[in-house]
Amino acid sequence: MLPSTEFALLRRLATEQAAARVPSIVAAVVRNGEPAWSGTRGLVDGETPGNDTQYRLGSITKSMVAALVMRLRDEGRLDLNDPLDKHLPGTGFGSSTIAQLLSHTGGLTSESPGSWWERSPGGDWKALQASLATNAVKNRPGSRFHYSNVGYGVLGEVVARYRGTDWLSALRAEVLEPLGMTRTTGHPQGRHARGWAVHPFADVLLPEPSHDAGAMAPAGQLWSTVDDLARWTAFVGGHTGDVLHPDTVAEMRAVATVDDANTWTAGYGLGFQLVRHQGRRLAGHTGSMPGFLACTIVDTGSGTGALAMANTTSGPAILTLAIDLITIADEHEPNLPAEWKPVETDPGLLALTGLWHWGPTPFLLRLIPGGMFELTPVSGAGRASRFRPVDRDEWLGLDGYYAGETLRVGRDAEGVPSHLDLATFIFTRIPYDPAAPIPGGVDKAGWRA
Fold it and tell me: Which Pfam families does this entry report, sorted A to Z (predicted)?
């Protein structure tokens, strides 16, 4: 980036480190799927940390476990609406669905019973399940957002059952290695930061413990580096490689529930935290474990992302810092729009484009990049959605009012497109075309004064 931009980013990072009294902090900005800037302040073992220095990620681990669950869904191994009992029978909370566990609306207790799991060695799945035999459900499933670390311990076990291995081995094979995240591990390896607590009234440090969380590990076990977390930040922004289809990641970023319902600024998707801030819509996750704070977040509009990791239990406003880094990057160096280029298109699809009418209301059907269609009201206000191809003459709604609905092309005896059938609504080339199967029929006298 420009020297002036890099200095502004570094100054923001330096201000946070000094004001919050952070032993060390690292950060980066990601654009177009690649790191655009990285910076550091403070020391690790007397030396400046680098992009290969490991920090603990905490709950960012949850987003990666969610990616494994979505892979199972895309393979047809499970459905998000399935009750947990279908895939992990024998628990006392089997009516909670997979989607509810992913979005923290399953009603489960926030923490595992017994000793504070983040500072205690964890047991295996049988021990966790036994501890949840009674009083595990705190809210009616689906009724509200209630953050549950336990829910992701459960999802980790679902993954393990289907893959025939532990969740971390599955994650390594299916997500980390394909994305090139070779320095993301369950325990620190090589150069890493030690976790510290900073005294609230004096500039002294206390080392924090770091245990294996056992069956609760899918809620916050992982360690990573700037280089690796930049790859994950790019993934959240849609540069998904072969791990998941970009549409699936977009589905994970969609709002499943909100945390402050009146004028919501914080919510949750399927494994991602969601934030609205000064007109920006952001997705990613924060993380905290004793001695560590972390964040990865992406502006879904501009595509710019940022990450930050610190080795302190509390102090820095890690999410605010990451959002500020995005804002600085976009304000100093706004992204240029992608160059328009013509693309080869199936002539049969061109025949579907243009003006269609829902009753008397005109809509435009346009081909857009990726071989998809976009249906929008001519007036600009009303129901609009994008559709991706499923089969010949069949398209699936991706967003807006028609998300999940099917658009089908009707043809006349000569094979010419005659109407669109979208969730029972009939769109025709002219308003209320009498030759089309308009529900209720069309008055034979036609239009009149």
Answer: Beta-lactamase, DUF7586
Report CA Rg, the chain.
25
- β-partners of residue 305 are 30, 298
Task: Count CB atoms within 10 A of the CB of residue 315.
Answer: 19
Instruction: Output the pTM of the full model.
Output: 0.90
* Tokens 């060695």 belong to residue: 121
Which domains are seen in the chain, by residue range? 3-332 (3.40.710.10), 347-428 (2.40.128)
Q: What are the CA-CA distances from residue 174 to residues 217, 236, 246, 372, 447 (Å)?
A: 18, 16, 16, 28, 60
d(CA 239, CA 25): 26
- Tell me the per-residue pLDDT of 42-68, one tens digit each, with 9 for 90 and over: 999 999 999 999 999 999 999 999 999
Here the tokens at position 66 are 């969610």
| 72 touches 87 (CB < 8 A) | no
Please name which of 90, 86, 56, 60 lies closest in space to residue 73, comparing C-alpha atoms.
86
Q: 270 and 277 in contact (C-beta within 8 Å)?
A: no
Q: Decide if 296 contacts 305 (C-beta within 8 A).
A: yes
Q: Which residues pair with 321 in a beta bridge?
A: none
Residue type, 67: A
Angstrom CA distances, 236 to 21, 239, 271, 406, 449, stand at 30, 7, 11, 27, 56
What is the rounded CA–CA span in Å between residue 21 and residue 200? Answer: 10
pLDDT in tens, 206-222: 999 999 999 999 999 99
Task: Point out the residues of the chain with pLDDT beneath 50.
Answer: none
**Beta-strand runs (E) in 222-348:** 223-224, 257-258, 266-268, 273-277, 280-289, 292-299, 305-310
Percent of the chain surpassing pLDDT 70:
100
